[in-house]
Write a structure and sequence with these properties.
The protein is mostly helical and 270 residues long. It folds into two domains: 11-134, no CATH class; 137-253. The protein is 50% helix and 6% strand. It has twelve helices and six strands. A two-stranded antiparallel ribbon has the order 1-2. A two-stranded antiparallel sheet has the order 3-4. Strands 5-6 form a two-stranded antiparallel ribbon. Helix 3 packs parallel to helix 5 (87-97). The chain starts with a helix and ends in a 16-residue tail after the last helix. The relative contact order is 0.10.
């Protein structure tokens, strides 16, 4: 009788390996599975399978943390309880997010999961951001987060959100004037979490190759005694930043910017 009762409570079918899972982890995973069963049932079933061995327990705990953080963001979204997402996208986010232990990076995956949810559950626009995030190191995530927060954002006349570069000059090889977002070496050490100068140079080059910082960035200055790096984010990076922070509306609204008023017929040159 006791055995039958135990089986009836085995929501995810993991009683045979219960000894490998501590109470906290199991509770987190079951809570996350309950949430996923609403927004994407196949992903909930996959989450249960992650409890089959110690490596999967590690991943299940991380995936559950991502889901629970995403739920907090959805609860803050009007009508969030009615939203759901494509299995393909949810699966990709959980696959990558389940390997991440760092809270700050888990928050990024959670933001991506939350903004993948829509009323019809058919939006796949976050696929590009999931791919980009999966290719970033923790240091790159921190640098990009800092750059996107600190960059001066403006709304262009056509309504697009862009970074204000000041009096920029452009050449066939990229920007040669203007400041954008510049970080000192000390700032980079503090923000990135590493003091390896050569690694930082590689990290910046990689961000440039992914087109997340402008072409003139991605490396250190060599014509000045003070070591600095230009980390001006691209529009793609800014829009990715907004999604990673759990907001899927107009990026200008996220930053509290007002789009320019459309010009009237009287203002149109004759």
């Amino acid at each position: 009788m006791a055995e039958d009762k135990s089986k009836s409570l085995d929501i995810l079918g993991v009683k045979p390996i219960a000894d490998a899972v501590n109470t906290t982890t199991k509770g987190m995973v079951e809570g996350a599975a309950a949430i996923l069963s609403r927004i994407c049932l196949p992903a909930a079933e996959e989450l249960g399978f992650l409890l089959q061995d110690k490596v999967r327990v590690f991943r299940a705990k991380n995936a559950a943390a991502v889901v629970l953080k995403a739920q907090e963001k959805l609860e803050a979204t009007p009508g969030g309880e009615r939203l759901h997402a494509l299995p393909r996208l949810v699966g990709l986010i959980l696959e990558q997010g389940s390997w991440v232990e760092l809270d700050e990076v888990q928050n990024m995956w959670a933001g991506l999961l939350a903004t993948s949810c829509t009323e019809d559950g058919q939006d796949d626009s976050n696929l590009m951001f999931a791919d980009l995030l999966s290719r970033l190191t923790a240091s790159q995530c921190r640098i990009l987060d800092f750059a996107c927060r600190e960059a001066k954002k403006i709304v262009a006349p056509n309504g697009l959100l862009v970074v204000d570069l000041g009096d920029a000059l452009w050449s066939p090889n990229g920007m040669i004037g203007g400041l954008g977002t510049v970080m000192s070496l000390e700032q980079l050490y503090k923000v990135s979490g590493t003091t390896d100068l050569h690694r930082l140079d590689r990290e910046l080059d990689h961000l440039r190759s992914l087109e997340l910082i402008l072409p003139h960035g991605g490396g250190f200055s060599t014509d000045s005694p003070e070591t600095t790096a230009n980390v001006t984010p691209t529009s793609l990076a800014i829009q990715m930043f907004v999604r990673l922070n759990g907001f899927r509306g107009d990026p200008t609204e996220f930053f509290g910017l007002t789009p320019p008023e459309p010009s009237s017929a009287e203002d149109t040159p004759q």
